[in-house]
Amino acid sequence: MVAMIKPGHLLLLVGLLSGCVSDRVVLLPSPDGAETALVVRDASGERVLDRPYAATNTQALAAPFDFRANPEYVETRYAAVLQALPRGAVSHVLYFETGGDRLTQASLAELSALRQQIANWQASEIMVIGHTDRVGSLAANDALSAKRAEAVRELLIGEGIPAEKLEVAGRGEREPLVPTADEVDEPRNRRVEINVR
Amino acid sequence: MIKSHRVTAFMLAGMAFCYPAWAAEVAGMIKTSSGQAVIERNGEKLAATVGTRVLVADKLRTGGDGAVGVTLRDNTRLSAGPNSLIVIEKFAFNSSTHDGNMSVGVRKGTLSVATGKIAKRTPESVDFHTPTSVLGVRGTEFIVEVENGRDD
Q1: Residue B93 CB: number of other CB atoms within 10 A?
Q2: Which of B110, B128, B146 to mutate to probe the A interface, most A CBs <10 Å?
Q3: Would you call B79 and A86 a contact, using CB atoms and an 8 Å cutoff?
Q4: What does the UniProt entry say about where the protein is found (chain A) (predicted)?
C-alpha cells in the first residue's frame, strides 16, 4: 500500500489540504463575567460555543472539531488582533432638575472633568443621549429627552468640545436607570448620558 | 422658468454641501491603526488612519505587519489582525430605538469582536460570517480566524 503512494502524490495531497479554507472561532469571556455564547453554522451543521474559551475549527475536507482554548493560546495566537481592538465606550451621566432641561449643581461640576477626558482621547466621538422618567406620554418623553440631549450638546460646545464630534439621541423613557411603573416621578431617570467612544 | 431652475439648482447644490453623500451610510470610525492598513472603497485604496470614517461596503485590508481597529456607531468594536480582509457589508442603527442590523464578512485573516447595542437589543439581526460559516451572536467578545481565505 505504502509503495503505491509516490512522493508526487503526497505533495499534491499536502498542497490540496493547505489550500483549504479553515475557520477557527474562539469565544472569549465577557468583561463583566456575564453568560456568553456563539452559534457557528456551516455545511456540516450547527455547533454552540457556550462557555469562555470554547472554540471550534471547521475545514472544508474534514469533520469540524471543537476544542477548549485558554488565555495563553489566545494571547499567543491573537496578540496582534487583540492589541488593535479599540477601547470600550465610557458613559458619564448628568442629572436634571424636575421637568426641565436645567442640570443639577453636581452635574455641572462633572462637565469639566469630562471635557478633560475627551481632550485626551484620540479620535473620540460623543453620543449625547437624553433619558426621561415615565411621567408623561411616550411621544412627549421622546421630545423631552431630545431637548435635554440638545441642551447638553450646547453646553459641551460651550466647553470647547468640537461640534462635529457630537451626536444627539433621545431615548425617551425606553432605558430607565431605575425601573418604575408608568407615571412615576423618578429623578434618577431624568438624566443625560454622555457616551464617549 | 429658467430662473426657478437656477434657484432649484442652487438649493440642491447647497443641500449637497450641507449633507455629504456619506451621511446616511457611516458605519463607524478607525480608532487604532498600525503597519500596512487600508480601506478599499469603490475600487480606491485609502490609508486607514485613526479618525477616518468607515462606510457601509468598505473593505479593511491589512498587510503582514498591519492591524486596524474600528468602533461602529452602536459601540460594536472590531479589529483586524495581520494579513486580513474584513468587509462591512451592512450596517444600520437607530440611536433612539437601538433598532438596526449589521453584517460583517471575514474573507481572510483574523477578526476580534466586542458586540454593541444592536446585538444587545436584537442579536438575531447581527451576523458575522466567513466564506464557509455563519456566526449567530449570543455573546459579547470573540475571535474569528480564516486560514486560506479569499483575497477579494
Answers
A1: 22
A2: B110
A3: yes
A4: Cell outer membrane
Give CA–CA dist B71/A197, Å, rounded.
7
Whether the CB-CB separation of B87 and B111 falls below 8 Å is answered with no
Q: How far is A13 from chain B (nearest CA, A)?
A: 16
Complex ipTM value: 0.84
Grid coordinates in use for A157?
A: 460646545
What are the two backbone dihedrals, phi and then psi, of residue A139, each rounded to the nearest 5 degrees? Answer: -65, -40
Left (φ > 0), alpha (ψ -120 to 50) or beta: where does A45 sit?
Answer: left
Q: Are A95 and A103 in contact (CB under 8 A)?
A: yes
Can you give the pLDDT of all 152 residues of chain B as single tens digits? 444 455 444 444 444 444 444 444 899 999 999 999 999 999 999 999 999 999 999 999 999 999 999 999 999 999 999 999 999 999 999 999 999 999 999 999 999 999 999 999 999 999 999 999 999 998 789 999 999 888 88
**What number of CA atoms fall less than 13 Å from residue A156's CA on the CB side?**
33
**β B44-47/B67-72 pair status:** unpaired
Q: Which three cell numbers stand for residue B111?
A: 477578526
